[in-house]
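[Backbone geometry]
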Amino acid sequence: MKNIYLIAFFIFMLFVVGNNNCFGEENKSSKETTDKWTKELTYGGKIQAPFCSGVFYQNFKSEKNSAETWGAVLSTDKVFPDWNLSIKVGKLSGAGGLSKLNSPLLSTSASAFSTASTGISGITVSLPGSSSFTKPFSFFGQFAFNKKNPLLKGGYVNIFFVPSLNAIQTDEADEDSNDFSKSFLAFSFFDKIELPKKINYFISTTAGVFQSDEKNTSQWYYSRATEKYHPIDACFCWNLQQSIIFSIFSSCFAVSAYENHQGKVDFCFRNENKLHLKRITLSLCEFYNPFYLSSSSEKTIPEIFQVKSGIQYTFFIINPFKEDPIPVFIKTGFFSYYDYRPEDDNNLKMSAGFRLSYNNYAGSLLAAMNQITNKSKNQDELIISSIQCQIKNSWHFNYISPSVTATYIFTPNTISKNTKTSEKITATVNFGNNPNFGLNTSFSLNQKDKINESKSFSTSLSGKYKQKYFSLYAKIGIKWEQKEN
């Protein structure tokens, strides 16, 4: 099975590399091309003591000033495991209930192997990593309790303050897209309740007050508001999440409320469900927003209804002719995403995939197609916007773990006037345990109407070394880009 899969991978690679139409022709236009080299160096580490720890990283990138990030945490969990007080300061990253306030929408991605996310949490904050240099200074305090009482099982209350909304980012947001400089204050509560028959109930609520940029003329209320606009100094936001988990079924429901600039409150709703029946996993997610609203990060949420559904089937096969056979685990999946917008184009995304793992090998094949319902001509016309194919292969040995990923994206001229294609190959090798080194190399091409438009190549080498009370990290990289002017 593994040999067949590897043969399919190499045939795909030969097709991509050998097909001139795929990689495009040489640039025969009169336009000039420019080359750009970017060099990058990152170093830092972590110091850890029984009651506190701290991290520091510094980044040097050509054509940019150096950037630093740091963070520190003080915790009493070693002394009071049932009643823990922790304080974090620095350029922190907020997530959990804070991300849900930031962007209550469902993720628009539709990976064949993704499932509904039925877990909930309050505000969670982590110290900055080696690639997080855009967060401003912030403060976080939390009081956690882990009592044996089934009504107070693993809960906490916390507070998070950040002077700039740049620190509030979702996993899918571009960190350079939010240029706010207003303050934000949030509180959250989370509790786990153990019910009979191994049923767990979770509840979490997050509330905050944020100041928005009144000069941002792109906000919805300048074009949507029908009443006189009276800006207020600060807007209130709130999120309530509930989750219940059975042995084979789990579900979560969330409602979010945002105060707009007229002092009124808008609501949106989210629900995710997952059913696990032995080898089959079913997922169904919905999100509904009946109003145009602005979230706590001033992200405009349109009037929209989203629905995601998926199914995964997992099984294994064994070679009966071997005395001590190793099973081959196989997982197949299909996932779809659809959104309905009364005044905009609708999106339909579908993805199907195949994944297997055998001994120290894992591989997957994914195919995805995106469609748009074009309403520009007062006709609901369903057109294909892009087609994507991706192959991944990875191996894991005692001291080395290589992986190779190939991606091909085709964008027809159904939306724009040009046909676009892009190819990308990424190779990664991790070797050593402590110290651990990683080598990452990628090469990508982009074409427009079969003419090469841009190329890029990047490679980086990173290293980590850990001891009981400290760890060190360093990374050096270089990137070359060629674009048509």
